[in-house]
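Good morning C.,

I know you're traveling, so I'll keep this short. The sequence:
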Amino acid sequence: MKNVRPLGALALTATCFLSLASCRGRSLAPATTAPVLIGVVLPASGSLGPDGMAWVHAIQLAVQEVNAAGGVLPGRRVELLIEDSETDRDTAVARATDVIGRGAVAILGDGGSAASLAIYTGVTQPDRIPQVSCCSTSPALTEANAAQGPDDRFFFRTAPSDDLQARAVVRLAYENASCTRLAILHIDDDYGTPFATAIEADFPLEGAGTVVANVAFTDGRASYATELQVVSDAMPDCNVVIGYPRNAGLMLQNWAVLTGHPTVEWIGTDGLKSDALATATGNPALLDGFWGTAPLTTPRTEEFNRFAARYHAAFGIDPEPFTSSAYDSAALVMLAIASAGSTDGAAIRDAFFAINDTTGSGVELVQSGQLALGLATLRDLGSIDYVGASGPLNFDEFGDPLAPYEVWQWHATPPGFEQIVVFQPSDLAP
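The tokens, ready to paste straight into the viewer:
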């Protein structure tokens, strides 16, 4: 990322993240003043690498706020153990195992759903360590929590499940892109496969259209000409891509030189709402008019505007999609630790519901940028209603929030994303 300046005393953790050096916690005595260690497992490389550092910066912003207020527990500040998951599930598991071995009491991550699921099933759930993802949206994560009893669920996320986003894609396809013959290209993992399955099931039910192709692809290919030829032969009028910027950017390049391809509208999903998409495509003309959907992580609210201003002041850039969700993931973990008054995993997990108390009467409303108020109120009253930078975060029994979705479109002039319409969860009910 360009023109990013580190956040004061937190620059060390960012440096360790990029170099993958081992950032071990300070040795402080007595134990009552030892830092509370929180693991951060997010991509600095691979398909999601261009976005990962922005998410880490947002987490650092929340940590700086809490530490400036005296720490998450009396006399105990937060220290981050930051590792690069490389957008790879095996690496993510190894990094999560490492930071827990070094004393992390919670994990923030990963970005991709496949890696988050691997961490949860292989590391955090067996170890009973809370895990919060800012950006993983696969329904498989809901299913993994549902497979556990209520006392054994340790996964939360600040972005909603793709169950509703699939319906948002279908609404976009019919109402904005006028699709009747839909082709789906999806990354073959725990993010792409269930998402594609849901779109394929919903599209014919919502209108008179047909899914003419559903093609899986793997990450990191040098060309997607073979997959695109299958799609072209099916003669779609719209192509949906469920993947990451370097996949979609290469597909747009390959499609442009494919002989005899039909004229199509292109539709992406949340993994593509990133400035990295334009870089990967390389030619603004190929991307102009590209449609997409995503959870609404840049809402036009006081809470988001406050976060965006602080983020820009700290790093000299505007927040990207899901950076607000990353800030909220860190804020929620730290508020839960303060509410629990403990670093015990089960106690932290239980406290997540105390910081999303929506009963109303007598409950203090705490917004993003007011974490000092949240810490003080939790110590005095035991519960708050936290409204995050990304919006309200009221978890269901499986650790999922409900949130709006936006339809976006990328334009070449001026270059960037335009929000077209916002769907509330009630708009997308079956």
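Safe travels,
E.
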